[in-house]
Amino acid sequence: MASKKMEALGSVVAAALGDKLVRSTLALDELTIVCKASDLLSVAQTLRDHAELAFEQCIDVCGMDYSAYRDEPWDGPRFAAVYHLLSVKLNHRIRLRVFAEDDAFPVIPSVNDIWNAVNWFEREAFDLYGIVFEGHPDLRRLLTDYGFVGHPFRKDFPLSGHVEMRYDPTQQRVIYQPVTIEPREITPRIIREESYGG
To answer: Domain-by-domain residue ranges, the chain?
Structure first.
C-alpha cells in the first residue's frame, strides 16, 4: 500500500505537469512517471524548479530495451531512458521514464544542461543501448572499445559478440578476429534418488 506522502507527491506531479504527463504509476511505495520525448526538457525543468517538487539531483540514468519485456510480447516503443531523481530539500524520489519514438534510430533529448551529473550516464546508455541523446556535448562510447560493433545490452545482441580481441605477441599489438567460441554440448541435469548409493 502506498504511503500518504507518495500519493501527495503524485498529486503535485500531476498538477505541475498537466497534459505532459503520459502515465503515473505508484507501486511498492515508488512513483514512476512517463512523458513523451518531445516534452522531456520542459518536464525535467519543471521537476527541478517547481517549489513543491525540487528534484535538484539526477542520481542515475539507464537505458532500457523492452523488446522482450518480462518474456512476453511488448506492444510499444522498444527503447527508453529511465531517470532516477532525488530531492534532498524535500526528501523524496521519483522515477521518470521516456520512450524513444523511433526503434530503428532511438533519439531522446539530453538533459545535461538541467542536471549536469547525467553526462556520463547518457554516454553509458548511448554506448550500451545505442540511444542517441540529442544535444549532448560529448556523446561517444564510454565502456566499449572504439572499434566495437553494435550495442551489447540490446536484447538482440549475440551473447558471444561479433569479434574477439587479443594481444598478439608476434605482431606486438591488439588484434581483432572472428569469434572462435565452440558451441557447448549441454548435458541434462541428473537428479539422484534420496537413498542413492546407500
So the answer is: 1-144
Fold of 1-144: Beta Polymerase; domain 2 (3.30.460)
SS3 category, 32: strand
Give the whole-angstrom CA distance, residue 95 versus residue 61: 10
Name the strand (E) or helix (H) holding 179: none
Question: Is 27 in a helix, a strand, or coil?
Answer: strand
Band of residue 197 on the pLDDT scale cut at 50, 70, 90:
low
pLDDT in tens, 65-76: 998 887 777 788
3-state secondary structure of 86: strand
The DSSP result for 167-193, as a single string, is EETTTTEEEEEE--PPPPPPPPP-PPP
